[in-house]
Amino acid sequence: MKTITLIFTAALIMLSTTSNARLELWGITSHDGEYKLGTVFTKSTINIHDPDEDLLRYYNLDGNVEDTSGNNIDATVTDSTFAHRNGISNLCYATGGTNQVEVPTIGNWGNHLAISFWFYGNNYGNQILFGSRQGGSGATLTNLGCILQSDSTLRFFIASDAPDEPNTYTSDKIKSCDWNHVICIQNREINKNIIILNGVADTVTYTQIPRYKNYPIGFGDWNSTYNSTSGLKGRIDEIRIYNRELTIEEIDYLVNQSFDIDIDNEILAEYDFTGNADDITGNGYDGNVHGAVLANDRFENSENAYYFNSSETNYIDLGNDLKPENFPIFVSTWINQYDTNGEQVIFRNDVWDNTSVFSGIILKTTDGKISAACGNSIGNTINDYYEKTTIYNVTEADSWHHVVVGLLDSENTVIYVDNQEVPGTYSGTITNLQYKNGNAVFGIGSNETSKFSGRIDDIRIYNRYVDPLEINALFNLANPCPVYNIAETSGITVYPNPVSDFITVKLPEQSESYKLTLISMTGRTLFENDLTETNNRINLAGYAKGIYFLTISDTQNKILKSFKIIKK
């Protein structure tokens, strides 16, 4: 088996000048002992397709299992568990190890079969990504499948009547706790099976003739005719099935397909600390400040973060209702420690006294290492919690760091520091998450221990997956109070703020013209409009909850006033 990294450039597409030339994209042939991609064969005419055309099936899984290929052969699901992708609701299908999206039989696919899909999973190993077989046991009942192996590689096979079915293995491992793209291909004209994982292709030549079995295909597990407990624990998205060849351009599109991101969707609580410790989501988890004082944030905006003095008793009390009952739970924040010595609590949402009570979740640092833990000990047992700690120091004093922790379940946690996932070690074990009815707090442990030393800012708490693209967006958020050369202008007001639908921009009573610009937290211009009336109503109902910036400029594009808008 050879490995080919797909570098999608025009240089790989080599075309013959003869009219009957064909770009044999999957004619991966041996040349001087090396495998080459893009060899030209003179077999038929060149045929370049659109990846959304000429499909057997296409299931985008946007809240349903309808076939949008035009063939109208809808799939079925064992339950209706649709999930977030990049913060957008109902954009993929959640698999729990025993449920699947079942695609009706595709019959005899001829000389070409290509199955493209995305999946999100952990490297547990030995999980079915897709499979087709009849109930019972025995190789003759198996049709085809793609398996996540115990070493985090993938295995793709299409069965034959021979004792050993041809298996194609990926040389690369999957990206754990991230989205992976897979294309499984069979080309019967050249007797090759190919699997492409995140743009890297591996191939094997088979000698036995593969067989067709008229079975459905299950994604996330075997199809429903075969009961399994080894399905994917994760998510499936964007299933495309073709019975034709794919071009390099199509593969480039499928591998690099872009998806929308919404970091403000379904936030449980959010604290930007702009002058106070209120929960700006409107969910009511407002903070009560004890001793902590407003300070400069990472952009040096005054009174936009909170400073905690570890020599005193400084903390922010959030009450006892901020208690998500189910995994996953993600927490994103910025921290700047004045010193990194000892254990320092950033956030906990219940009692955690380090002796006999370990309840809820906790995010903390210990001598520069980041730890995230969850517990179910409410005083009856000792040390009933599990914790993941980075294996090396990832924070330093007097420096801002972005920290994201994701408690995926009672066995797995991810930790990101400054937009990079960092490895860690586990300790302890639990079976479920429990609470003791203590308050959620920023900046201090139970019994006034483990006090935080430094500044904390921009805390977001989610009770859903936060994907790596969202973490990247959170890390790269723009300055919430951009510094402009603002002219001395009076009489420009904006209300109401916070706003749920219409916002009014009131201008001075004069004939001058103004321009309004609405900007996202990531710095992207969302809307521009000329303002000519004294009172101008702007409809923001279609925008997601979160923070936006609204600027008013004159005809020379000089910014006259800037407003921070909270959309409810």
Write the layout of secondary structure elements.
Layout: E1 2-5, E2 22-23, E3 29-31, E4 34-36, E5 40-41, E6 57-59, E7 76-77, E8 82-85, E9 88-96, E10 101-103, E11 112-121, E12 127-133, E13 142-148, E14 154-158, E15 167-169, E16 178-187, E17 192-197, E18 200-205, E19 217-219, E20 233-242, H1 248-255, E21 267-271, E22 288-290, E23 293-295, E24 305-308, E25 315-317, E26 329-337, E27 343-348, E28 357-366, E29 369-378, E30 385-390, E31 400-407, E32 413-417, E33 420-421, E34 424-428, E35 441-442, E36 454-462, H2 468-475, E37 493-495, E38 502-506, E39 514-519, E40 525-531, E41 535-539, E42 546-553, E43 559-567
Antiparallel strand pairs: 1-18, 2-5, 3-4, 6-20, 7-10, 8-9, 9-20, 10-19, 11-16, 11-20, 12-13, 12-19, 13-14, 14-15, 16-17, 17-18, 21-36, 22-25, 23-24, 24-36, 25-35, 26-31, 26-36, 27-28, 27-35, 28-29, 29-30, 30-34, 31-32, 32-33, 37-38, 38-41, 39-40, 39-42, 42-43
Overview of the molecule:
The chain is mostly beta strands. Strands 1, 6, 8, 9, 11, 16, 17, 18 and 20 form a nine-stranded antiparallel sheet that branches. Strands 21, 23, 24, 26, 31, 32, 33 and 36 form an eight-stranded antiparallel sheet that branches. It has an eight-stranded antiparallel sheet with strand order 22-25-35-27-28-29-30-34, with no helix packed on it.
Any descriptors?
single chain; 568 residues; globular; mainly beta; 43 strands; eight-stranded antiparallel sheet
